[in-house]
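Hello again, I could really use a second opinion on something today. Take your time with it, there's no hurry, and the full record follows here:

___
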Amino acid sequence: MSLPTMEAGVRIALHHFGTAEKCLRPTCLVRTRNKTACVPILTGILFLFLTAACTSPVESLRAASPGPPARTILVSLDTWHAMIAFPIDEPDRSSSAPPQYEEWGYAERAWYLEGRQGLGGIVRALFWPSEGVVEVGHYDRVWADRTPQPPAELFTFSVSDEAYQRLKRHLRETIADKTPLASFDRSVFYPAARNYHLFHTCHQYAAHALRAAGLPLSPFWAFHRTSLAWQLKRAAQSPENHPATVPSA
């Protein structure tokens, strides 16, 4: 079975003082015989600079054309899981029919497909690199509307067609083999190109993909739901993001 091809018309539905005198004069600027006292402060300043840089928009990935956003990206985030979705363009379908979405997600193979869960499964999944799976599904509702683990949030982004195509290419490259491992409901699971572990879960997977589209997300800081949600809210509030209206199911 070959991987479903996302045509150009497709749009995507897939885990944070001292005295007043001292406060006015930073330690690093005070004359001191202990030169090493400045090292932690300089390191901290450099760290903050790099943090800001890695969550800033990816200028080199933005579309060259200044036209209005052309594609919609939907990101569902529930208690544990993150999914990326695109509305599927179907010009010939009846306007009364529910919209369709293509979704991409990521999970640990042993936990999600083989049922090897429990405390031992948590330790294995987080602290030992193990096989991952990529989920590709087609539904009439996005994950945020059908998750069994609420509460869920839905974030909407509008990007250029060029950014959208980069995102599609990135997602396809996360699949190691086009031969499916399993299928449940309306989802098909493929072997992932990267292992699952603490620093590459579904949250980092989503952040990597969205960053490929030029959105200001840092995979390093997407280490759990809260940190990814904070970044998504920040990106969604950017003046450059003008979400299109998403049809309701």
Remarks:
- The two ends are 29 Å apart (CA to CA).
